[in-house]
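Today's session is about reading a structure prediction critically. Students often jump straight to the picture, but the first step is always the sequence itself: look for stretches that repeat, for charged clusters, for runs of hydrophobic residues. Only then move on to the predicted structure, which in these notes is written as discrete structure tokens rather than atom positions. Here is the chain we will use throughout the hour.
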Amino acid sequence: MLKRRGIILPAFEIHGGVAGLYDFGPVGGRLRRRLVDSWVEHWTSQGDIVEIDSPTITPESVLVASGHVGEFNDYMSECKACSGVFRSDHLVADNHPNPDILSPEQLNQLIVKHAIKCPTCGSQDWDDARPMNLMFSTRIGAMKGGRTAYMRPETAQGMFMLYPALYRHFRNRLPFGAVQTGKGYRNEISPRQGMIRLREFNMAELEYFIDPDVQIEHDFTPWTSTPFNLVPDPEHGEPVQMTPGEAALKNVIRHPSVAWFMARTWSFLVGVGINPEKIRFRQHEGTEMAHYASDCWDAEIHGSYGWIECVGIAHRGCYDLQAHESATGDKNLRAWRPYDVPKSVDKTVLSGVGSVIGPAFRANAGRVHAALGKIDAPGPSPPFELDLDDGSSVTIEAGMYEEKHIQTTEHGEWFLPHVVEPAFGIDRILWHVLDHAFDESGKGDDGAYTVLRLKPRVAPIDVAILPLMEKDGLEEMAGQIHQNICSVRQLISYYDGSGSIGRRYARADEIGVPWAITVDHESLENGTVTVRRRDDGAQIRIPVDQLSSHLTSEELDSMF
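Below is the predicted structure for this chain, in token form.
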């Protein structure tokens, strides 16, 4: 049905197709756009979160600093018989509850112990598991002057690069956040499960910058009667049902901001049509959690492929900003924390000897003086390397500095903000929206048919315009209504005059259109049309000139 109705289709199919690449057709493209727009609106409505957009091509130095070049790997196993290559953790998925946390040695042991067969040829003769970096490499520029780069594996790094601009935008006050949506690229070893594991995919990520010394008072009252399904790290407890506020209070969720974003994530998923009974939050195990994360939970959704991770919500600490600061020497990745009461400080620091520093470093003398003044006496033993604020370094010899006692008043301090990151896989969420909305119990003139019971906010088409027949002027009136609705911002309709009215209702139901407008002879007489509701087939008549206002205000349901 998805392929036939232009929702999701294999890409490049006439050339044999490529695993892990899919097209969104005319219906699917609109559905994905509405899902993304709903996501952006959900987060920016918080008031302290803005949307940004950064390039999908990322210089190598950025991803070296972030750790992706060295660490962004999956383990692969190669069949010695047919040279087929597969993800090692996928091969042993039936033999371990969480195989992606295993070392290559553990993966090899499981492959041998369970006599895993090659999915292609059936051989059991495997090479040892080895890492494969998942990023697509490219070059910026031509020939020898080109610069190594990668197609971004995530949108997050662009937001860290933009931190100084965001800090200025929010008038140098935390907390604040940024969202970004768009393409991500990962050279998956063995894409599988349709839309679940792709090589080019749609992401939506949020980076929320906070002061680690300030406790944010989150309001959990919207969820006081909504216990979530929580699956903590087995070392910390058994699965429980608990509200997010209670879980934060009892330290089941270790950071209140992580709990807050879990709650807001749950509301978004339910709002776009995910069955709340099929959502759970699973905490990363100690061996699974990134070394920089103090807590991380996955929002998993149950569907036709079982429990699938669709959102990751992590407290990343200051890892990313610190990594980029260390790599570049740029101090603009910090925030200012004023003291409630200024502090008087007596200390002894290093001070450059002007008569030596000036001739030795010339144009850099000022930077050297400034850098030395930040070192508390007695400092390192000379000679030592001194990092300057432009990212360069110089060698300081004995006799270039002396100790100097100073008295200062400090009004605050610079620090690296911490980050809470909810990261959403749009394609996986979209798949589950379709999965949960798919209903084969529709009844029509020709028997049972499929209905997509999509929420109106994400339905790809708002209304179907159906003339009872294409004669007697009905088609002209229906065409005019179609044009009028399409001219209204954020409304989409489509015209269908082919076949019986029952079959046209069924076609609209199958792609999730919530409302169908039938134009009949009475419409020509008194300017009213029949509005049919998808989910139960109920019908009412309303004036044509009220259609757009009722659709945009979502008041139609209340009129039945």
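Discussion point for the tutorial: The radius of gyration is 30 Å.
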